Amino acid sequence: MLNKQGFHIAVMGATGAVGQQIIQTLEKRNFPISQLTLLSSARSAGTKLKFKDETITVQEAVPESFEGVDIALFSAGGSISQKFASEAVQRGAIVVDNTSAFRMDPEVPLVVPEVNEHKLKEHKGIIANPNCSTIQMVAALEPIQKAFGLKKVIVSTYQAVSGAGAEAIQELNDETNAILNNQEYKPAVLPVASGEKHYQIAFNAIPQIDTFTDNGFTFEEMKMINETKKIMEMPELKVAATCVRLPVETGHSESVYVELDREDLKVQDLWAVLSEAPGITLQDQPEEQIYPMPATAVGKDDVFVGRVRQDLDEKSGFHMWIVSDNLLKGAALNTIQIAESLIKLGLVTK
Amino acid sequence: MLNKQGFHIAVMGATGAVGQQIIQTLEKRNFPISQLTLLSSARSAGTKLKFKDETITVQEAVPESFEGVDIALFSAGGSISQKFASEAVQRGAIVVDNTSAFRMDPEVPLVVPEVNEHKLKEHKGIIANPNCSTIQMVAALEPIQKAFGLKKVIVSTYQAVSGAGAEAIQELNDETNAILNNQEYKPAVLPVASGEKHYQIAFNAIPQIDTFTDNGFTFEEMKMINETKKIMEMPELKVAATCVRLPVETGHSESVYVELDREDLKVQDLWAVLSEAPGITLQDQPEEQIYPMPATAVGKDDVFVGRVRQDLDEKSGFHMWIVSDNLLKGAALNTIQIAESLIKLGLVTK
After folding, report:
1. Which residues contact B181 (CB under 8 A, 6 or more apart)?
2. Per-block average pLDDT, block size 10, for chain A (350 residues)?
3. Is A206 in CB contact (< 8 Å) with chain B?
4. B132 catalytic, yes or no?
5. Which listed residue, of A23, A70, B154, B343, carries a Cα 20 to 30 Å from B182's Cα?
6. A7-130+331-344 architecture in CATH?
7. Where is each Semialdehyde dehydrogenase NAD-binding domain found (chains A, B) (predicted)?
8. Nearest to B293 among A199, A240, A295 (CB)
9. What's the CA gap between B331 and B128, in Å, rounded?
10. What number is the ipTM of this complex?
């Protein structure tokens, strides 16, 4: 049932892996919607999708698609956002963009509501949703930073293929099937669909997500480094990342080492802060073999933190293991939480 | 063809994942063998295994099995090594033990031939083969330490199930098949066969290898920390590890951050050292998407290093990605290289 008191929402990239999650999450959270416009490229236009009791036909996006839209949720790749976001803003919509197109634009707030919701007030039409692997890390690090001060972060990621879209999920499944049945399979999507080389992801680990920059880090690694500093408003924070793709369908994991401002802390101090933090579930009972894993985090809203332990050499150093559903908190859910915050703060006008 | 000028070799745990690799590697390297005795528990005794043109029947191990044996290669679990290693030594054999039973014993050399072959001269009958994840890391770090001095290591591992034995490989395959066919599967082996809880490894990542110690690190993590210091003879080296099991059959990967003694180094300096190092293959051309992966390292002898890059904040800091076949250099090959070094150094008497 649509709600006449609600907002006109558009979802750009409605047929993609994240687009589908956005539609499901809007429904699950009973987001106040008076009209839902589903948009895609010409190729996917005509697809029929369910929302509550309605069947909605996906339309090909044109600039006029955004007439009357209050909030447009973009998740169709950076070039589509570059092309259509300003068209949507000109027509009065607020754009929440889930691509990397505007994230480092100093005019665009980059928001994880639990961390920096206040930045929404500075928006000029576009708000950027951070990279999936960044969101879950800053959600866990912000309460630690607030309580104890953060100096340094070194992260190694264990990322699911769904971060590379529905085609990558299909590739993982088809390739795994082929290998188990001793059949040939020619990878065509991972690590980077547009790249020259493609590698097997089934039963493998690929230390490349996105393309390489000149400094030897990938763009995915640089996103984690730069976005973390921007969201946490800590340009001097030391951050390093190694990003790795795994044969996991959904759920990103991160092995994170931090150095804090204080040397007098124990694991219990971090537990106390994390167990009270919004959007965080502490899963940390090693004696009971309780720790976060992608298989148990999938489909859940929270960021799960466990394996918290003090470094054996650095008194200010702690290690932890952070897992979240990359399609939910890492993408669709955070996008919708931004929209909810915009409404709560009175920043959306109908 | 057995070689009358060779040595009498015994393989303890001949039917296990590593035992099989030991037999194949002895054959591939044309190890000088006059007699090959294959041993196992009562359960696997009677199995017939091929070695060159011979078919050898696996016998149940008893103390007398080691009469006349020159070198006994043990890979049947710590409790079997505890029970039989001294029996073998009393009968004149040198034991190369691939379990954790004796690794931290100050009387027992812990050897990676490329790193500390000289320690073999101090042996008192037993020589320990390090943990798989440690071997490949120290093989890559030793040349860097020698050239530039090493201060600190932080490693996150991406470990294959074959490190947990043949049953874990079977579990990964059966479970993956079951999930792809929407069938139920009840895990019984991973993460720790003897543990109370077992978790799905297919399409998942489990941040537990071996059981937990009181400090929150697992025994696997403590093995990496303590064995690295012992092998590199650097008790003051700062080492931290997070060990994670992946749905990969064979090939361990490691995301390694190091801090060196010097601040004037560039990636090219590390490349120069690694490309000359014994047992190391540098695979580091990001612009060509060339980097190590388990799928390309499996079945190969070397340790592969790539993704070498300088930290963006610490001038003395470098990141790298180290991959090797955990059943070869991580286990069988290193065991046999130790035996070859013993012969080369004149330490085996017939």
Report:
1. none
2. 87 95 97 97 96 96 98 96 97 97 98 98 98 98 98 98 95 98 97 97 98 98 98 98 98 98 98 98 98 98 98 98 97 98 93
3. yes
4. yes
5. A23
6. 3-Layer(aba) Sandwich (3.40)
7. 8-123
8. A199
9. 11
10. 0.96
